[in-house]
Amino acid sequence: MTVSQWQRRIARAQELAGQHPFAAEILGFYVHLARFQENLQSKLSRAMQSPAASLDRELTSSEISELGSSFAEFLSLAEAKGPKPLAELSRDLRSRGPDFWSDLLSASWLAPSASDAQQILSQAFLQPCAELLRSRAALRSSQSAHALCPFCNRKPALGVLRQMGDGGARSMICSFCLGEWDFRRIVCPGCGEENDKKLAVYTAAEFDYIRVECCESCKIYIKTVDLTKNGRAEPLVDELASAPLDLWAREHGYAKLHANLFGM
Ligand SMILES: [Zn+2]
Ligand SMILES: [Zn+2]
Predict the structure, then answer these.
(1) pLDDT at residue 140 above 70?
(2) Tens of pLDDT along 199-232?
(3) pLDDT of 53
(4) 260 CA distance to ligand 2 middle (Å)
């Protein structure tokens, strides 16, 4: 299951990079990142045998040491293949050494939202670990009225619309553990606004299956991938490829609920 999901994302990133030259650099790096994440996840799934009761706990020292041994490799990859700001940050972090990395990974694991670029990068590294523990976690329900992930309490990275009856039902995808939970369509995930006159949806011809859902009350937006319009989309990847929509939203005074690894 896990393998095919990574491979689907990689194939989609390669396909979209060919269609959208402006996103080719980001997607090219994403392909390297996803391959690394897939390998890390299968390594962790062998090394971390104990079932996890929840994600809401500190990493154990053996988990930290297991992760720390892969972090240098991750930083080297981001330095060699990443866009310039990520490459520079990775070079700097690589020079700090194992004790610094352990502290950074422990803090990033617990941080409810990444406070700076170091933590954003660290959470991208930790994401396969969070996803693995979530898949083993006791909480199986995807039902939540909450704007935060019911598994790990992080903000959603994006929304998706899936076919249900005659329409599409919206769910949110976690920015950290990639958990998915139901979320009503006419509610702002930023502030809970329910007045549909305050909740605007924009689309652009180039990405007609991606909705930019904006809230006039808190000026937050989130992108939602409409799988009823484009069944080929891989939500995480299409979200990255549609960076022009983020620029548009920013120019119109909206801030994203949760920025991705590339600061979009
Ligand atoms: Zn989560
Ligand atoms: Zn709002």
Answers:
(1) no
(2) 999 999 999 999 999 999 999 999 999 999 999 9
(3) 59
(4) 19
Q: Would the CA dihedral through 136, 137, 138, 141 be positive or negative?
A: negative
For residue 195, give the ligand nearest its CA: 2
The overall pTM is greater than 0.90: yes
Whether residue 171 contacts residue 185, with contact meaning beta carbons closer than 8 Å, is answered with no
- Ligand with minimal distance to 218 CA: 2
pLDDT tens digit sequence for 165-200: 888 899 999 999 999 999 999 999 999 999 999 999
> How remote is the CA of residue 20 from the centroid of ligand 1, in Å?
29
Determine contact, residues 224/235, Cβ cutoff 8 Å: no
Q: Among 225, 213, 226, 227, which Cα is nearest to 257's?
A: 213
Alpha carbon of 120 to ligand 1 centroid (Å):
15
* Distance set, CA 221 to CA 52, 86, 144, 230, 247 (Å): 33, 24, 20, 21, 12
Q: Alpha-carbon distance 257 to 133, whole Å?
A: 24
Neighbouring residues of 130: CB distance < 8 A, sequence distance ≥ 6: 55, 109, 152, 176, 177, 178
Determine the distance separating the centroid of ligand 2 and the alpha carbon of 193, expressed in angstroms. Answer: 5
Residue 223's DSSP bridge partners are 212
**Residue whose pair of structure tokens reads 């969070």 in the numeric block:** 130
Residues near 3 by beta carbon (within 8 Å), at least 6 away in sequence: 38, 42
Q: CB neighbours (10 Å) of residue 244?
A: 15
Ligand 1 center to residue 152 CA distance, Å?
A: 4
Give 18 Cα–ligand 1 centroid separation in angstroms.
Answer: 31
What is the arithmetic mean of pLDDT over 38-56?
A: 80
